[in-house]
Amino acid sequence: MTDWQDVCGIEELKDGERRLVDLNGVVVVVLRVDGQWFAIEDVCSHDGDSLGDGPLEGDRIVCPRHGARFCLRTGAALTPPAYEPVAVFALRLADGRVQVRDDRW
Fold first, then answer.
1. Of 29, 36, 37, 44, which one has the fewest beta carbons inside 10 Å?
2. Domain that holds residue 79
3. CATH number for the domain that contains residue 50
4. pTM recorded for the entire structure
């Protein structure tokens, strides 16, 4: 298991905002949605394009290219054309900071 990587201060990311972070060569989108925090791989399992700029629908992110929806909690693909999940990463709030770690689930 790897160490926690610092992303930003808790107050730096407002609701609905996101931040990209390179975590051991994997680009991860860290999001704050309705006061909850999520960390999900920045790749659509359908075509390999970025999810990071996709619209949010509650705890779902929509791929901006083809409209596939993914659960921010589990990474599950919820609608076609994606059928495979994307990785979700451990996230914690510690000492006023947002941190992620590469122990995907």
1. 36
2. 5-101
3. 2.102.10.10
4. 0.91
